[in-house]
Specification:
Elements: E1 5-8, H1 12-23, E2 28-31, E3 43-45, E4 52-54, E5 61-63, H2 66-72, E6 85-89, E7 92-96, H3 100-106, H4 113-124, H5 135-143, H6 145-160, E8 190-192, H7 198-206, E9 211-214, H8 228-231, E10 237-239, H9 243-246, E11 256-266, E12 276-279, E13 288-291, E14 306-315, E15 324-325, H10 329-343, E16 348-350, H11 352-356, H12 362-377
Parallel strand pairs: 1-2, 1-10, 2-9, 6-12, 10-16
Antiparallel strand pairs: 3-4, 5-8, 6-7, 11-14, 11-15, 12-13, 13-14
The structure holds flavin-adenine dinucleotide.
Length: 378
């Protein structure tokens, strides 16, 4: 094989490793089982409107990591987009995350920061010193019953298809409440969207004479020239696919939640006036609606059509796209055993959200790939 390194998976983790190693003079062969590069950050223009749609769910770039920010800016400029989220509850729209605006609208009040803080403290004390035994009690302990039941309870039940009384308290460790009217979703100093789209950014990372990309190539498909048994032991491998799949599920399957997306082109210029609207109530089956035109107000999109995407959440079957680790105690035990197996693999490095079974934002995937290059591959 004409490569010094095989990278399985062309998401941000794999691309960062490949780009760094290629720039250091190594020949890198990347494969991906999908027909496009970029992993879950991939986006494409909806053909009839030209509106950029994030195929695997809305992706907002944000980071406080200066090294990652500097690295990302080598491949793309960013717009000044600032992410804001609203939620619909009982026919009324509230700003999220919960802030002074949400509190005053919800309680029909005009509290200042201190009065609001005192109110939430008092409501959160309802359960006294009792240790929360489930997510319901944890929610009440964190922000008090009224706000928890309005904005978190049913939304979380939809995300997990499970009554929060049957979910462990550990699912939520904190629920941010801001005692200002600041409703920016992310606190990070750097945020924005790639000026000419995610796919242009992702393609530029792979655009190096030392990088070859083969799409539609599954690492476990033995009919392909580049597959697990042909490669491992011959060439160093960076593997960013699911860790349980790599070991043929020897320790059992790790559980994931997946999302279903229902995309629709509408004959209106603006459907909801904002990019993301959550639906907090159980009666609405989807968790949120994305309207992609609002991610790029600077672009010249058609004024009479728009693209929306409804998002539904459920537990993943083996054939589904794995999105968020469920992370039950059984999963954690399985992962511990998989880690022991990983340690036994010669010259195979496991990375990214699937390879390490953890949710990673894009900046975290890029940051941990840079660390892998520094610490294990250089
Ligand atoms: P991925 O992007 O998943 O790439 C893994 C690649 O490996 C895939 O292309 C897959 O096809 C390939 N692969 C798997 N198995 C095989 C195989 N057997 N053979 C060959 N190839 C294989 N991050 C943010 O910063 N902001 C956001 O707003 C945000 N929103 C998100 C919304 C959703 C719904 C999800 C799921 C994630 C979101 N993320 C967001 C996280 C972001 O998608 C990840 O950080 C990023 O995808 C991680 O990159 P990765 O390379 O680890 O994994």
């Amino acid at each position: 094989m004409n490569a010094d390194l095989v990278v399985v998976g062309t998401g941000f983790f794999g691309l960062t490793v490949a780009e760094r190693m290629a720039s250091a003079g190594r020949r890198v062969l990347m494969i991906d089982r999908r027909e496009h590069l970029g992993g879950n950050a991939y986006s494409e223009d909806e053909p009839t409107t030209g509106i950029e749609v994030h195929r695997y769910g809305a992706h907002l770039f944000h980071t406080a990591n200066e090294r990652v920010w500097e690295y990302a800016n080598r491949f793309t400029d960013f717009t000044s987009y600032t992410h804001r989220v609203y939620t619909t509850h009982r026919g009324e729209v509230f700003p999220m995350p919960i802030n002074l605006g949400t509190i005053n609208q919800f309680f029909r009040s005009a509290y200042g920061p201190e009065a609001a803080r005192a109110l939430i403290r008092e409501q959160a004390a309802e359960l006294g010193d009792k240790n929360p035994e489930n997510l319901d009690e944890q929610g009440v302990r964190l922000i008090g019953r009224p706000l928890y039941e309005a904005f978190i309870r049913e939304y979380t039940a939809k995300q997990w298809q499970t009554d929060p009384r049957d979910l462990p308290a550990s699912v939520i460790s904190r629920l941010p409440v801001r005692y200002t009217y600041d409703n920016r979703y992310f606190n990070d100093p750097h945020q924005g969207l790639p000026v000419d789209g995610y796919t242009a950014w992702l393609e530029r990372m792979a655009d190096h004479p030392n990088i070859e990309v083969r799409l539609g190539t599954d690492f476990f498909d033995t009919s392909q020239p580049v597959h697990q048994r042909a490669v491992v032991g011959q060439v160093p491998v960076v593997y960013t696919g699911p860790v349980d799949r790599y070991f043929d599920y020897a320790e059992g399957e790790l559980s994931w939640r997946t999302l279903d997306f229902d995309t629709e082109v509408l004959d209106v210029g603006d459907f909801q006036g904002t990019s993301v609207m959550n639906y907090a109530d159980a009666e609405v089956p989807y968790t949120r609606i994305h309207e992609f035109r609002h991610f790029h107000p600077e672009r010249d999109y058609p004024s009479d059509r728009t693209v929306i995407m409804r998002e539904y959440s459920r537990f993943a079957e083996r054939q589904d796209e794995p999105y968020y680790p469920v992370n039950t105690p059984e999963d954690r035990e399985r992962l511990r055993r998989y880690r022991a197996l990983m340690d036994g693999e010669q010259d195979v490095h496991f990375g990214g959200r699937l390879g390490t079974y953890q949710y990673l934002d894009m900046h975290m995937a890029i940051g941990s790939a840079l660390s892998m290059v520094d610490n294990k591959l250089s």
